[in-house]
Amino acid sequence: MTKLNLQLFAAQEGVTTTASITAQAREIDFVTSFTKSIQPLLDILGISRPIKKANGTTLYKTTASGTLKSGAVGEGEKIPFSEIKAKSEALGPIAISKYAKAVTLEAISANGYDVAVAKCDDEFRTLLANKVTGDFYDFLGTGTLKSEQSTFQMAVSMAIGQVKNKFQQLGRAATGVAVFANTLDVYQYLGSAAITTQSAFGMSYVKDFLGADVMFISSSVPKGKVEATPINNIIMYYVDPADSEFAKAGLAYTTDGDLPIIGFHTEGSYDYAQSESYALMGIKLMAEYVDGISVVTIKPATQAETQAETQPAKSSK
Question: Is the model's pLDDT at 40 over the cut of 90?
Fold first, then answer.
């Protein structure tokens, strides 16, 4: 019986195969779609270029206050220094987070590639985007400009006023104000009226509403809360997954060439007969000045308080 040398029929090492082309196309599509989806949000927030940081860099939130001295200084007199104080508090390091998903051979066989793999990639990308925006909403809740108002409209108005006033005190001009409100609060206020919302990176928003340049509407904002900050107070940091030395260890991730904010790699596992996908991401949306974030609580007035406000004042004799 003639023995065949099976090694002669194996693909040569280093040869690009159909499987590798398909995998690379998936990786490019994943990171490109993620970057394209976040870009409209960055445009709305006026973030022309996110700030790149090394993995493990400590991020800080800042509070600032100051008093401007008189500029009426006589000839030859010493010009007084205006006292400006800035206090930074460490938020912790910005670090790469690691995520993975797998689709089994059985799932691909039962549902087809498009459903089992491609649709799962879409959902994976959505979940990663939700992680970024969810962390941002959590950060907004740490704002230190706090107050209470009796109605939704007053809460929005006061939130805008507080952050504009704060930036004026800092000698900075607010290029616009972004307001963040709970979905149910917004639609309860609207009643039967209708608004046209748009979406960017999974965040629903409406422009020029109730004095806000842009209002984001989300269930991630606690019901009964309205948050706001100047648009130019919002910044984005990121870690470039391709900057690490992972590639030297055989862990190469595909990133977007223009904005490398996420790394993605996919491969087949013969050990488990499944398609495995891995993502690296280190993104932090935050505000530079935490005391430039207003958090207003909606606390409806009691019946007694309402009656007291509507009753005419008694004249003193």
Answer: yes
- In single-letter form, the type of residue at position 148 comes to E
Answer yes or no: is pLDDT of 68 > 80.
no
Does the pLDDT at position 228 exceed 90? yes
What mean pLDDT, rounded, does the chain reach? 85
Tokens read off for 114: 């498009």
Which of 131, 135, 129 has the alpha carbon at shortest distance from 36?
Answer: 129
Q: Distance (Å, rounded) from C-alpha 157 to C-alpha 148? A: 12
Please name each of the domains of the chain with its CATH number: 22-64+89-308 (3.90.1690)
**Mean pLDDT within 104-120:** 89
pLDDT confidence of 77, banded at 50, 70, 90?
confident
